[in-house]
Specification:
The complex is a heterodimer. Chain A is α+β, with helices and mostly antiparallel strands. Chain A contains 11 helices and 8 strands. In chain A, a hairpin with a 2-residue loop joins strand 7 and strand 8. By secondary structure, chain B is an alpha+beta fold. Chain B has a single domain, classed as GMP Synthetase, Chain A, domain 3, CATH 3.30.300. Chain B is 35% helix and 25% strand. Chain B has a 3-stranded mixed beta sheet. Chain B is globular and about 40 Å long. The N and C termini of chain B lie far apart (59 Å). Classes of the chains: A alpha+beta, B alpha+beta. Chains A and B meet through strand 8 and helix 10 of A and helix 2 and strand 3 of B.
């Protein structure tokens, strides 16, 4: 049974506070030390106690499957050492044996390899702990127990686990802007004609694309191409989903009349209709578009 | 009733007097989808959007039956010449070397 030395970590709340996702009360396998005659004993606060105790008791079984961080062997990351392709928790060390990052994964071998490739300078050796019956909770608990142990021992969160440090997490695609909505919802009676809303929108924004579907998942090939062209130009643009019947009700018909253009997508620049997919494609290919957006 | 490629061509020829016109049926035979390349003097000084509008307007009748019209090129003769340099004439003397 893994002896989880949580008592000391609970005495250093300052280091815990630096770690935002860290809930000592929820993850406290310490409870087992008290063999649970009445789960409320170790806890000063009462509101969550009952639930907490139940969770912890169940998790104790799982956590015990993973060795303590300090007991786990540190293995150099090299081609000779093969890591298991199981789910589990892992800790990465640099060449001075300083802990850099603790992570969980569905495939230890693959994750270690990925880290080795992306940050070879910091990924020198690694400790891995296979989690049996790896559901998400069990993995998270294993991760928490290693984190707690490290924090308790060093008083620090591993640098790679500091909030805002993205060295070890795959760089997610930059978040796309949300699509604009013209109305507060179809249930709300507009006090201004929809045409005026369109007019204001296209005049207040340099580039507006009226597309079918959202900018992150356009629902028509032409809209998709337009979004692709705008993104490849690196231009800031707003998008409006003309298929959104809830927030853009009636937009398609009104916009066709407003722009006197029969189809979608429609791209407006500085308040004027630039064109649809064909026009954007032509202007993209002959370089006119780049010139236009540079202004 | 489907629109034929010939109909599209003759309408565009009469209304826009193109110096080059290439209409291709992209519908797979049902005549509901066309791709147009058109070069006309009338496009001179007009923005691409206006050129497309001219083509759409010219084909207003046909558009009622055409489901999709893609205008891949709407150029002035000058632009067309720039994009498609005439083949070198073998009879003419070579340019000064």
């Amino acid at each position: 049974m893994a002896a989880l030395n949580l008592s000391s970590s609970l005495h250093s709340p300052s280091s815990l506070r630096r770690f935002p996702n860290f809930h000592p009360s929820r993850s406290t396998p310490t409870i087992s030390f008290y063999s649970l005659p009445k789960p409320s004993i170790p806890f000063p606060s009462t509101s969550l106690v009952q639930k907490t105790a139940l969770i912890s008791r169940r998790l104790n079984v799982v956590v015990s499957a993973v060795k303590n961080l300090s007991e786990t062997e540190l293995v150099p990351v090299s081609s000779e050492n093969e890591f298991p392709s199981d789910s589990g928790v892992y800790a990465i060390y640099n060449d001075s044996d300083d802990l850099q990052f603790i992570g969980i994964t569905r495939n230890l071998a693959a994750s270690v390899l990925t880290h080795k490739k992306s940050v070879p300078e910091l990924c020198f050796s690694v400790k891995v702990g296979v989690v049996e019956e790896p559901d998400k909770t069990a993995l998270t608990e294993a991760w928490k127990s290693w984190m707690q142990e490290h924090i308790a021992a060093s008083g620090k969160v591993p640098p790679g686990n500091e909030p805002g440090n993205t060295t070890w997490v795959k760089k997610a695609a930059p978040r796309k802007k949300p699509d604009l909505r013209l109305t507060p919802g179809s249930h709300v009676q507009l006090t201004v004609p929809l045409e005026d809303l369109i007019d204001r929108l296209v005049k207040e924004n340099k580039v507006v694309a009226f597309i079918k579907g959202s900018r992150s998942a356009p629902l028509c090939g032409f809209s998709q191409r337009v979004v692709g062209i705008l993104e490849s130009q690196g231009v800031e643009y707003e998008s409006v989903d003309v298929l959104d019947e809830e927030y853009n009700y009636g937009l398609r018909e009104t916009l066709k009349k407003y722009s006197n253009w029969p189809t979608f997508p429609q791209v407006f620049v500085n308040g004027d209709l630039l064109g649809g997919c064909d026009i954007l494609t032509s202007m993209h290919e002959n370089g006119e578009l780049a010139g236009l957006f540079k202004q | 009733m489907a629109v034929t490629k010939e109909q599209v061509e003759s309408t565009l020829n009469s209304k826009l007097n193109p110096s080059h016109l290439d209409v291709s049926d992209t519908s797979g035979g049902c005549g509901a989808s066309y791709c147009v390349e058109i070069v006309s003097e009338q496009f001179e000084g007009k923005r691409l959007l206006e050129r497309h509008r001219m083509v759409n307007t010219a084909l207003a009748e046909e558009m009622k039956q055409i489901h999709a019209l893609s205008i891949t090129k709407a150029l002035t003769p000058q632009q067309w010449a720039l994009q498609n340099p005439p083949p070198p004439n073998p009879q003419s003397p070579p340019a000064a070397a």
